[in-house]
Design brief:
Shape of chain B: globular
Helix content of chain B: 40-55%
Strand content of chain A: under 5%
CATH class of the largest domain in chain B: Alpha Beta
CATH superfamily of chain A: MetI-like
Shape of chain A: globular
Oligomer: heterodimer
Number of strands of chain A: 0
Structural class of chain A: mainly alpha
CATH class of chain A: Mainly Alpha
Radius of gyration of chain A: 24 Å
Distance between the termini of chain B: 69 Å
CATH topology of the largest domain in chain B: D-Maltodextrin-Binding Protein, domain 2
Strand content of chain B: 5-15%
Strand order of the largest sheet of chain B: 2-1-3-9
Order of helices and strands of chain B: HHEHEHEHHEHEHHHEHEEEHHHHEHHH
Radius of gyration of chain B: 23 Å
Distance between the termini of chain A: 19 Å
CATH architecture of chain A: Orthogonal Bundle
Helix content of chain A: over 70%
CATH superfamily of the largest domain in chain B: Periplasmic binding protein-like II
Largest interface: A-B, 42 and 36 residues
Order of helices and strands of chain A: HHHHHHHHHHHHHHH
């Protein structure tokens, strides 16, 4: 908590300093503002508008009929399924890993942190091919799986595995610095008052990182639903069976079915906008949380 | 329970809900009807959409069984690769025989003599290659020779991953051989110049079409005749089809994947599916989707749609796919040599 409150006080200081030294001529200010707004408009706002106008160019009826197609519904369901499995698993893993890393000392800790970061640095295509090499017919486990009639890649399990791999670090990465900053004093206090490990975790550790967890889940979910590269490699592109929403958008676009492609793309864009809004609310809540904590500690001090 | 843990528990229940929603969907809970997976190449999407509906109706009338056919489309070699890696295709309908040879050779999922099992070299429909240019043909492209002029930008996909790209390459090579009295060196120079004019290699036929039509790149697109006729039908005003003086007879081949159908117990229906492609109705659906049919009645009916082109076969000029693949498209083959020179 201390490091966060100090960054806020630094921000406040710099704000008051910048108020005093803001002496650029008017036109320089305007130029910079126009440049920044123009850049944002051209590269971010315009594409978002294009997605929605292309989706709606023939009216709401065409827009809605794009979602009535059984293949589109199957793609949406598969995307929900993949995210519905990947996010809770990564939530459990992320909590466990960050708790272990932040609160305990053990050998190989740095190795664990590096491994958690691996999916961030590996290209999604490579992550997809890894699964083909392991579970493919000629991969390590391929012949055994074939004998036992288990289909992993080019089927739903492969898509879920690829999604889990790609979204692996999101929650853990969010929680590790937060938990490290909070230290272990509160847990020590709880244990010295007679709480067991489980109680300490549920009543002390988890409530302290609550907003971090939610923040991580939001990001993890956005990536899980938006993933394209890794899923494309392991999907097999069977329509209505192994096409996720992102893959289905590509297929529709390639079939000159622009309206349907952009209609489904608008769903992904909406998801992004909702994610952004949720992110801002959570960020705002977190800051409030810190302010309250500061107030309480100030009151205590006085 | 503290409000904090409540919040996290509600997150959990949200995902449980997501899972329940996906699993509760009736289609997943029902007993599965017979399904076939047809792994096909890029431009056949419209063809098999029509054909699958027709076959399902025919099969229902004949046997009372309902059958669902699932489709997967992509660059021909990419699709063959997926089948080799374990994509469980009951039938493959790919752009060229070599890709099915690769499945037979590398994964041993079907016998090496698969091509003799169905009439016409297992190619129920054929096609050829032609050029598509923009309205009024601004670069005055009439034949292969016009493609290698400086300043002409050609769109063709990557011969390493795409079936049509290999047919394009071989058609150009065959043309240059014939014009230079069989001089291989001259043919190589011609192809080198041709690929110097290619700004981007897409991975499949449909990707190349998208590059030319949607992104507006290039002066000429070399692609399947069926794909060009489809573009022309969708945008009659903006494009013109140019028929070169000589082209290649392209035989997209189909095959049953023995090991997969035996495992799925779908041999009978898969065999019937492929044979139905040769029936009058199958041939008509192919012709309607701009593929050249074998049936004389259908050929006569759709004669106006297909221009007369002088065609040579891959066996005549290159001695078959195995040989052509080895010399031209294997690692370090002629294509690699000329493309690296670029």
């Amino acid at each position: 908590m201390t490091s966060q409150s100090s960054t806020i006080s630094i921000q406040m200081q710099s704000r008051s300093i910048s108020r005093r030294v803001r002496t650029e001529p008017f036109f320089v200010k305007m130029m910079l503002i126009i440049l920044a707004l123009g850049f944002l408009g051209l590269f971010i706002f315009l594409p978002v508008v294009v997605v929605f106008t292309s989706a709606l160019q023939k009216g709401w009826q065409f827009y809605i009929s794009a979602f009535r197609e059984p293949e589109a519904l199957a793609a949406i369901r598969l995307t929900l399924l993949a995210a519905g499995i990947a996010v809770p698993l990564n939530l459990i893993f992320g909590l466990a890993a960050s708790w272990a890393i932040a609160k305990f000392e053990f050998k190989g800790k740095n190795l664990l942190i590096t491994l958690i970061d691996l999916p961030f640095s590996v290209s999604p295509v490579v992550s997809g091919i890894i699964y083909v090499l392991i579970f493919g017919l000629h991969g390590w486990l391929g012949p055994w799986l074939y004998e036992h009639n288990i289909q992993i890649i080019f089927a739903v399990p492969g898509i879920v595995l690829a999604t889990i791999f790609v979204t692996f670090p999101f929650i853990a990465r969010e929680l590790i610095p937060l938990m490290q900053a909070q230290g272990t004093e509160e847990e020590e206090a709880a244990i010295s008052l007679g709480a067991n490990g489980w109680q300490t975790f549920w009543r002390v550790t988890l409530p302290n990182v609550k907003w971090g967890v939610i923040y991580g889940v939001i990001l993890c979910n956005a990536r899980a639903m938006g993933e394209f590269g890794a899923v494309s490699v392991v999907s097999g592109h069977i329509r209505g069976l192994t096409n996720t929403l992102t893959l289905h958008v590509e297929i529709l676009y390639n079939e000159y079915n622009t309206i349907a492609a952009f209609s489904l793309a608008s769903l992904l864009t909406l998801l992004a906008l909702v994610t952004l809004a949720a992110k801002s609310i959570v960020g705002w809540k977190t800051r409030q949380h810190i302010k309250n904590a500061e107030k309480i500690s100030e009151e205590k001090a006085s | 329970m503290t409000p904090q843990t409540k919040c996290i528990k509600s997150l959990f229940s949200f995902f449980v809900f997501c899972l329940a929603f996906t699993f509760s969907y009736p289609a997943l809970a029902q007993k599965k009807p017979t399904t076939l997976l047809n792994v096909s190449y890029d431009p056949t999407r419209e063809l098999y959409q029509d054909f699958n509906a027709a076959f399902a109706k025919y099969w229902k009338e004949k046997t009372g069984e309902s059958v669902t056919i699932n489709q997967s489309h992509g660059g021909s070699s990419k699709q063959a690769r997926a089948v080799i890696d374990g994509l469980q295709a009951d039938v493959v309908t790919l752009a060229l025989a070599y890709d099915i040879d690769a499945i037979a050779e590398q994964a041993k999922l079907l016998p090496p003599d698969w091509q003799k099992r169905l009439p016409h070299n297992s190619a129920p429909y054929t096609s050829t290659l032609a050029f598509l240019v923009r309205k009024n043909n601004p670069k005055k492209i009439k034949d292969w020779d016009d493609l290698i002029k400086p300043g002409v930008s050609i769109i063709t996909p990557n011969p390493k991953t795409s079936g049509v790209a290999r047919w394009n390459y071989l058609a150009g090579w065959g043309y240059a051989l014939k014009n230079n009295n069989g001089d291989e060196q001259k043919a190589k120079e011609f192809i080198t110049k041709l690929f110097k004019n290619v700004p981007v290699l897409d991975s499949g036929a449909r990707g190349a079409t998208t590059t030319f039509v949607e992104r507006g790149i290039g002066d000429v697109l070399i692609n399947w005749e069926n794909e060009l006729l489809l573009i022309k039908k969708l945008n009659p005003e903006n494009y013109e089809i140019i028929v070169p003086s000589l082209s290649i007879l392209a035989e997209p081949t189909v095959a049953l994947i023995d090991k997969v159908v035996d495992k799925h117990h779908t041999r009978t229906v898969a065999q019937a599916y492929l044979e139905y492609l040769y029936s009058e109705e199958g041939q008509e659906i192919a012709a309607r989707n701009f593929y050249r049919a074998h049936s004389p009645a259908i050929v006569a009916k759709y004669a106006a749609q297909f221009p007369q082109i002088n065609l040579f076969t891959i066996d005549d000029v290159f001695g078959g796919w195995q040989k052509a693949q080895k010399i031209h498209f294997s690692d370090g083959g002629v294509f690699d040599q000329i493309y690296l020179q670029k």
